[in-house]
């Protein structure tokens, strides 16, 4: 009895700034409520209740975000840093998460939606076939998505390595599950989930080992203490460098940067397309948010040690992504390699080590997120009897059968290729000029070459849609439902606006490039 | 007023492109022709308020200030002749499509032509390095689509090759202008003019970028494929205007902003230019297909333009300006005529054609006029550029430049040789050759007449263009050491 009293007196509950944490708390709370909906709501009402709950939670989170103090503060015993960069990233995750949820909630394209009818039924069994053909579907995808979004929001504001690790797991575990939930081609989907999980577990282990080594070096795990320890040059440098290397490996994996990129194509191909869209937009934001914070806040003093290495990683990533994209025959794999190459462009911006570097990376994340969500939304529309027709050959002659969808896809491809007056050009230009200003010339040269190479797979798809005669195996284009239409419209408008009038967002990103330590 | 005129010249093509998507298919070319004529009028309106030096009209507003990019447009005596040329060639293209069945939706083709015109006018109006690049790059998608969508049998290959070369060129261009702008701390082409910034390396990067577009031998190999496979209207715009982006960029962005580096590099450019003239002519002598031959002849003609730029004197740069415009008219006309010949006779092979003088005398006459204009007969448009370029080279003096001038003159003679061969083969040879399937259509007449007039007027009154460009060209030439 006495014992517990002393313990309670010894441990002081950290003060919480609930206002600053409100966006995250809303999304986490909605995730928990969503689990309860799964348990108690009648089956017929679940989809609509979950959709509304998720969308409302994300909008409420965004509104709450607007009221957070933007001076930069630390809360929860300094474990969470609510600074402008963190807020910008959280806002971006919420908005792009919302667009992803629109795709996830779409059910008009195929009976029952994109997600598995009953995950526990063995793939290919009689029950499975019956269920796949029915409109029956489970809705656990919504709580999983909410937890993933909340985890990402925590990840980009984590101010110490342990919280960062916890957040990493909070958003990764739902993602592993989400990857395995495809309604069709279930074995491929489950294979993707398993692959992602195994490799992701390795990466997490690396990260955790890095945290341990870093504790051995600095005696603490928060970025401020690590920064001070590095500045004072105390402790064992071997521990420091090994720890840093392990931390970076963990993050490189999440961001899909070479040589830790090899999971990306398989997972992107196997996962249900709305989840792929979600991952390619939001996971990238979270991962780069983590990388920026780790490198700029925690280990900025050590940049002479890690910068040359990461420049090599950026160069390798851009080359691997762009060259392998050229050889792809499957559209989802093509977009996966393109996302790898884009991760390289993002890293180039992050390595500029100046204010423009951070702001251009932030801008790139938003621009790329909208375009990639739009592109995957189009992928969802082109289908045949077996679901989505992702083989490039099936897209031949699409321009004649549905000119509008083909035009929209062409626009996204031009944006990916970095043609001016689309967001793709503005964002590439921003990161490259930041990197040039920061004396990182070699990744820029490789980046320009890589974006040239990358233009070819995109142009090839455009040619297929417009020029190639449609074969007998051409796929149908489904009329997009309200949700997909909304997502597509948002993607097109954002891609165009950020290309023609990027100034407001660039201003915002510039104001946002301010970390607290 | 300036803003209005510039916005009209740049914005009308985009409006026309959108309009094309909504007009009925059957009347689409008429709508296109009407729009093209209105755009031509808007381009001519820019002539109001022309001045000897400096910008006639200028607009400069902030666009993306974080990146230091301004929406800075303007027109002067250097850019207006090319804007006018573009507008006139688009009129010709729209007229050519009037009563011509095309393999796909003609509205899309017209819309792409207007989008291309938008990008081209944008390049010529741009006074900001980044805006210049933006429009330069924007020319790729519509041209690519025109070749890939309406081209000949090997169109996919040709379009891909065109895209590959263009992308390499524009990547270098981006690198060059960004390095130049970072070094100078400004993207303003007006303040950049006169030099003091950049280096030989930056100039070299830009020079290669423009050399790909011009195209300068040995970077020309995309050109014959693209021209041969492109539809007639595509070839007209490709040869008539797109190649000028390279030479215009050379003058405005290359030589204009980095005169010292340009002077250092001029012997190298001169050698390559003369190489292009001689080798282009030799290749043409060996061609057996009419369209491919005309395509290769552009290599030699653009060689003269680049030789004038390399010479770097006022006379040389003036030669480049007039040769640019003249080549646009002549080659545009030649491609229209080749298109007509190939359609009427069903073949472009020199061996199969013959005796057009008998079967289609008027066509033969105009084709003959275009041909002799192309090899530079005095009194026609092609003469001034070639003659001035050689004169300017001789004026530079010294062994190297004298050698270059003589080689260029030999190249000019070879040009005469291959064109005479064409004339004999196609027009004169009395032949049991293929017979025409049709006569002149209204659209063809409308397409050909302005171009013929252009060739004649430019030949008899070169001062029309030269007096416009004298001011800016003198400024650039004086900055050269």
Description:
The complex is a heterodimer of chains A (517) and B (481). With 517 residues, chain A is mostly helical. Helix content of chain A is 73%, strand content 3%. Chain A contains 21 helices and 5 strands. Chain A has helices spanning 2-10, 18-40, 43-66, 84-105, 126-133, 141-155, 161-179, 186-218, 223-232, 237-255, 263-270, 273-298, 303-326, 331-350, 355-381, 398-401, 403-416, 423-437, 441-466, 482-500, 503-512; strands spanning 73-75, 80-82, 382-384, 387-388, 476-477. In chain A, the strands form 2 sheets. In chain A, strands 4-3-5 form a 3-stranded antiparallel β-sheet. In chain A, strand 1 (73-75) and strand 2 (80-82) form a beta hairpin. In chain A, helix 4 packs antiparallel against helix 6 (141-155), helix 14 runs antiparallel to helix 15 and helix 14 packs parallel to helix 18. Chain A is globular. The two termini of chain A are 40 Å apart. The model of chain A has no long low-confidence stretch (mean pLDDT 89). Chain B has 20 helices and 2 strands. Chain B is mostly helical and 481 residues long. Chain B has one domain. In chain B, a hairpin with a 4-residue loop joins strand 1 and strand 2 (69-75). In chain B, strands 1-2 form a two-stranded antiparallel sheet. Chains A and B meet through helix 18, helix 19 and helix 21 of A and strand 1, helix 5, helix 6 and helix 7 of B.
Query: What general form of chain B does the structure show?
Result: globular
Query: Which band does the percent of strand residues of chain A land in?
Result: under 5%
Question: What is the H/E order of chain A?
Answer: HHHEEHHHHHHHHHHHHEEHHHHEHH
Residue share in helix of chain B:
over 70%
Give the overall pLDDT of chain A as a whole number.
Answer: 89
Distance between the termini of chain B: 38 Å
Overall average pLDDT of chain B: 85
**First CA to last CA of chain A: what distance?**
40 Å
Content of β-strand of chain B: under 5%
Q: Compute the number of helices of chain B.
A: 20
User: How many helix segments of chain A?
Assistant: 21
Strand order of the largest sheet of chain B: 1-2
